[in-house]
Please model this.
Amino acid sequence: MTQDELKQAVARAAIDYVVDGEIIGVGTGSTANFFIDELAKIKDRIKGTVASSEGTAARLRGHGIPVFDMNEVESIAVYIDGADEIDAAGAMIKGGGAALTREKIVASISQKFVCIADGSKLVETMGKFPLPVEVIPMARAAVMRKLAALGGQPRLRTKAGGDEAFITDNGGEIIDVAGLSITDPVALETRINQIVGVIAVGLFAQRGADVCLLGMAEGVKTLSF
Ligand code: 5RP
Model:
């Protein structure tokens, strides 16, 4: 099976977690896009969605699925999103698609977080995938120095093929931190959150996944945390 077929399989499996008549949180990325396409097939069963990025909102609307502003919503029944890495406790690195801050916000009011990913994303210790940190642009250099002091190699994310900083949906910039071995994800999340100028860190450990659907050659494996 190709990686896309594995992503498609978990996207299909995630439909079982959709709660009828409710608002569904929808993540960002290629796996989330497969989920949106599956959700479109049962769109009449749900009240609507909250999107974790402008790109996701556009894709949902393109399918005729209602998208609510999160300020109009008190609680979300289930949030379905991909991940860049996930560990055996359900902690994740996210933000490869630059939507980490909104993903964290949507996750914070979701009763259940279902992570959907191909099996290659499950790791023993996170950190091989550079950890994304969204920052206020004027704090970029100061935050990078602090991240380097934590033992990482911070690098500003740029627009494809150029030197210009990539700008998020929130007007922030992304610093990708390579070379970390994340043995205590909760502690590192707390520490990076405390750096002034950080908008959000792509470590989802304090609020990790409740369920992870992993696409494997032999089928979809379910991990519950
Ligand atoms: C976006 C994310 C994505 O969930 C993560 O990057 C995984 O993406 P993909 O499903 O394309 O592998 O966190 O900010």
